[in-house]
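Appendix B. One record, verbatim.
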Amino acid sequence: MMKKNSSLVDTTLTAFNGIRVLLKEKATKREIFVLVISIAILSFKPNIYSVLLFVLSWLLLAAEALNTAIERICDMFTKNYDERIKSIKDVSSASVIIIVFAQISLLLLWIFFE
């Protein structure tokens, strides 16, 4: 049984350990690349669109973290094909693609309305 984190330091170290685990994921590397691009855009062209793109990039990374956690939890139950597990994983990954669609929509708004 895991011991409950008793202090802010313990909780922070646990969170950083989660980030370390997340950084090993291939998908996370793509999201970090998008985040770096959004930081560059924000640095060179600061406006409401670049700020929103930056925020969406952080949300994308957070959604990927949750997606990865959900997939790992599902894999703990079974590695065999299960339609229910597939459905859970599909919905979980939908959260990632929804944020990607929001980023694309924002970029299109920026291109056509600025």
